[in-house]
Amino acid sequence: MQKVILLTAALAVAPALPVSGADLAPVILTLAEAHATALRNHPQVEIAQLRALVSQEISKQNQAAYYPTVDGYFDAVAAGNRNTRLLAGGLNNPVIYDRVADGFGAAQLITDFGRTRNLIASARFSAKAEAQNAAATKEEILLNVDANYFNVLQTQAVLGVAKETARARQLLVDQVTALEMNRLKSELDVSFAEVALEQSRLFLQRASGDADGAQASLSSALGYRQARRYELADEPTRSDSVPDVHALIEFALETRPDLLRSRYERDAAGSFAAAERDRNYPTITAIGEIGNAISHDARLPDKYAAGGITVDLPLFAGGSYLARQHEAELKTEIAAQALRDLEDTVSRDVRLAWINFNTSLERLATTERLLKHANQAFALAQARYKNGSSSIVELSDAQVNATSAQIAEANARYDTLLQRAILDYQIGALKP
Q1: In whole angstroms, what is the distance from residue 296 CA to residue 289 CA?
Q2: CA-to-CA distance for 271 and 263, rounded, in angstroms?
Q3: Which neighbouring-strand residues pair with 289?
Q4: Cα angle 259-264-268, degrees, rounded to a multiple of 5
Q5: Do 60 and 72 contact (CB within 8 A), yes or no?
Q6: Distance (Å, rounded) from C-alpha 291 to C-alpha 302?
Q7: Three-class secondary structure of residue 312 per DSSP
Q8: What is the DSSP annotation of 57-109?
Q9: CA-to-CA distance for 284 and 312, rounded, in angstroms?
Q10: Is residue 176 pLDDT above 50, yes or no?
Q11: In terms of DSSP H, where are the helices of 307-391?
C-alpha cells in the first residue's frame, strides 16, 4: 500500500518537473527569425543599449550647466552673546546674531568662454559613439547567429550522409552475407563489408555528436541558457556576383559602425581637450539670494535680498590645468591613430573576406562536379560488383569516395553562405 501511495505521488509531481531543452519538440526556425530572437534575447544587446542610454544621461548632465541652479536654505543660529565675533577663520562676515531664517539662492552661468559648450559636444560625440557601439554589437551577434545557424545545417547535412552511408553499408553486409551463404561470395567479401559498416557507424556517432553540439551552440547564440532543438529552414546559396573589392572597401569605411564609433570617440576626445584648454579662462556667474527672517535680532531686517556677479579667474594651480590639457590633447592623438589603425584593419579584413567568398564559390562548383562524378563511379562500381567483374575493395573505395564527395559538397555549400555573411559583416551590411 505504501508503494502505491509513493507511485501515485510521483506521478502527480511529474508534470510539474522542468523539461530539459533536449526533450522539447524541435522548433521550426528561419534565419530571419533567428536574427530577431537573438536581438531580443541576447544580453550583450541589452548591455550595449543600456550603455548608450548612460551616455545620453551624461550629455544631459553637461547641458544642465546652461540652466539656473536654485537651492533652498533654512538656518537656525544661536550666538553665545550679543557681541559674538569670529576671531579666526576664513574671509567672511565675523558678526553672528541670533536668528531663524529661510530663503532661496539661485545661480546662472553667464559664460565660461566655451568650456561648457565643448563639454557638451564631447558628451554628444560620446553618446553617438555608444550608439554605434550598440549597432556594432548587434552585427556581431547576427554574425555569430549566422555562423551557428549554418553550422547546424552543415552538421545535419553530414549527419544525413552518415545515416544514408550506414544504411547502405548495412544493406551491403546483408547482401554479401546472403551471397556468401550461397557460396557466391567469399568470407573475405563479408569481412570487408563488415569493416566498412563499422566505419560508417563510427562516422555516424561522430556526426550525431557534432549535430548535437551545433544545436547547443545555436541556443547560446540566440540568448538561451538551456539547450534547445531546432528544425532549421535551409537557406539558398548566394552565388550573386560581388562588386569590385575597392568599392566594398570604400563602402565599409563609410558604414561600418565600429569605424563610426572610433570617429566619434576621436571627436569626443578633441572636444574634451578644447574644454580642458578653456579651463584656463574665467568663469562668470550671476548669483542671487532672497528670503525672510522668522525670528531674528532687532538689528536684522525682516526680509533680505541680494544679487551680484562673480568672476572666477584661475591664476595658479601648480600646473594642474596645463597638465590636464596636455593629457587630453595626447588622448586625442591616440584616438586619431587608433582610428587610422582600424581603417587599415577594416581594409584588410574586407579584402580577405572578398577573397574567401570568391574562393568558396569556386570550391562549391568544384565539389558539385566532384559529387556528380563520384556518384557515377559508385553506381558503376556497384554494377561491376554485382556482375562479378570487380572486387569488394573497388566497391568500398567507390563508396568512400562518394561519401567524401557528399561531405565536401555539404561543407562547401554552407561555407559559401557563411563566407557571404562574413563579407556582409566586414562591409557593415549585415543587418537584421
Answers
A1: 18
A2: 12
A3: 105, 306
A4: 150
A5: no
A6: 9
A7: strand
A8: HHHHHHHGGGS-EEEEEEEEE--SSTT-B--SSSSS--B---EEEEEEEEEEE
A9: 6
A10: yes
A11: 320-386
Is 403 buried (19+), middle (13-18) or exposed (0-12) by CB count in 10 A? buried
Element (H, E) at 112: none
| H or E stretch at 272 | helix 257-278
In sign, the C-alpha dihedral spanning 159, 165, 167, 169 is: negative
User: Rounded to the nearest 10 degrees, how much is the dihedral formed by the CA atoms of 367, 369, 371, 376?
Assistant: -160
The owner of cell 586625442 is: 332
CA-based torsion, 181, 186, 191, 197: positive or negative: negative
Question: Does residue 17 register a pLDDT over 50?
Answer: no
- How far is 276 from 400, CA to CA, in rounded Å? 72
Residue type, 400: V
Could you tell me the three cell numbers for 214? 551545433
d(CA 271, CA 59): 13
φ, ψ for residue 79, nearest 5 deg: -95, 150
Give residue for cell 560620446: 126
Evaluate whether 121 touches 400 at the Cβ level (below 8 Å): no
- 182-221 pLDDT, tens per residue? 887 788 888 888 998 999 999 999 999 999 999 999 999 9
Give the single-character DSSP code of 294: E
Q: Provide the angle, in degrees to the nearest 10, between the axes of the packed helices 257-278 and 245-255.
A: 40
Phi, psi at 245, each rounded to 5°: -60, -30
Can you give the pLDDT at residue 9? 41
- Which residue matches cell numbers 557571404? 420
**Residue 287: count of CB within 10 angstroms of its CB:** 15
Cell of 316: 595658479
Q: Give the alpha-carbon dihedral of 5, 9, 10, 13, to 10 degrees.
A: 180
DSSP state of 410: H
Mean of pLDDT over the chain = 88
Distance CA 84, CA 260 (A): 65
Look at the block and give the residue holding cell 554479401.
176
SS3 357: helix
Using CA atoms, how far apart are residues 99 and 294, in angstroms rounded to an integer? 8
How far apart, in Å, are the Cα atoms of 63 and each of 43, 107, 156, 212? 31, 15, 56, 54
Name the pairing type of β-strands 230-232 and 283-296. unpaired
Task: Name the residue among 219, 51, 90 with its Cα closest to residue 149.
Answer: 219
